[in-house]
Sequence to fold (49 residues):
Amino acid sequence: MADLVTWMTDLFAVELGTIGTTNVTLGLILAFSLVAGLVISIFRRVKSR
Fold:
């Protein structure tokens, strides 16, 4: 189990090192858009009442 964890962390570190910047940027954009969509939908529901 510990070996799996270390392997995962190593893979993650390598991922972050090579193409991590683009991945993180895309992830942030995706997360931001999801949160924004959620907030907008909640706001619309509250407003429509």
